[in-house]
Amino acid sequence: MTSLGRYLLISILIPAYTSWAQVPEVNVAAGTEPPKEVILKAIPVDEPMPNLGLESALEELPRSLPEEFQTVYTRCEVPEKVVAITFDDGPHPDFTPRLLDTLRDRNIKATFFMVGRNVKAFPQIVRRMVEEGHEVANHSWSHPLLTSLGTESVESQMRRTHDAIIAACGRVPVLYRPPYGQARLSQRKRIRDVFGYATILWDVDPQDWQSPRKVEKVHDRILSMSKAGSIILCHDIHETTVNAMPALLDEMKRQGYHFVTVSQLIQYEARNQPVAAATVHPEDAVVVPTTEMPLGGLAPAAETISLDPLPPGQP
Ligand code: NI
């Protein structure tokens, strides 16, 4: 090799070796890496229900009323898209089990306001509701207009259904919904005193009983009217309503809605807004036009109906 050749070889090798030797050593042995920086996010003390794990936190909510509860609820004031879907007038021997399948497949808990005579006729369906985590509630014995009844008749309507629910499933109901959403202030207070019930109305009414009954109508109305804290009125005695549920519930879940029972919704409100829930008693102010269908009759026209006080001269 010539001296020029040696020079060229060395001038290539030395920088190559130097750059190889300067590669910093990487220790890949396990456990020797410096600990990663851990960022802890503080949860404010006035935020009892953090968004993380909302679904499991909601499942923990009791199906009983908080110590302080309003006499009447049409909806609840809550910070997340949490709603209660309710089904009235059942149980129905065919449609209600189908509905329960739909709810079970989606892990959705609902509230059933049941007519006592149907509870007595189909106690096994009521048992299944409770076994699958739903809330059972009182909707009178035979669906009369309570405002047309005297004190004893109203108590009999409530008592027979109350006892039939307990006999069917062992669960003591804590809620009732007056048929057609109608009950005098004095009746609501009396029912609260005697049975410990809250009066549950609704803010979302798809009018699913009204002809022509259509799946799309039920679906679209509930979807467009629902918001955080809504109480949704449905009837599981109508096949179209039950048929509307799979697509509706899937879409609502996709839109971020969570479903709880009505007493859970009230608990959720009380935990997030303890002051508001404890101090607001709007029973004198509530006016809910109702179009709920009577069993075996025509619904009174919505515009003729108001909650208390009743117009003078009415029975
Ligand atoms: Ni009803």
Word description of this protein:
Pfam families: Polysacc_deac_1 (PF01522). This protein has 315 residues and is an alpha/beta fold. It has a domain at 70-272: Glycoside hydrolase/deacetylase (TIM Barrel), CATH 3.20.20.370. The chain is 40% helix and 9% strand. Strands 2, 3, 4, 7 and 8 form a 5-stranded parallel sheet that branches. It has a 3-stranded parallel sheet with strand order 1-6-5, with helices on one face. It starts with a helix and ends in a 36-residue tail after the last helix. The structure holds nickel (II) ion (NI).
Quick synopsis:
This protein is of the alpha/beta class and 315 residues long. Helix content is 40%, strand content 9%. It binds nickel (II) ion (NI).
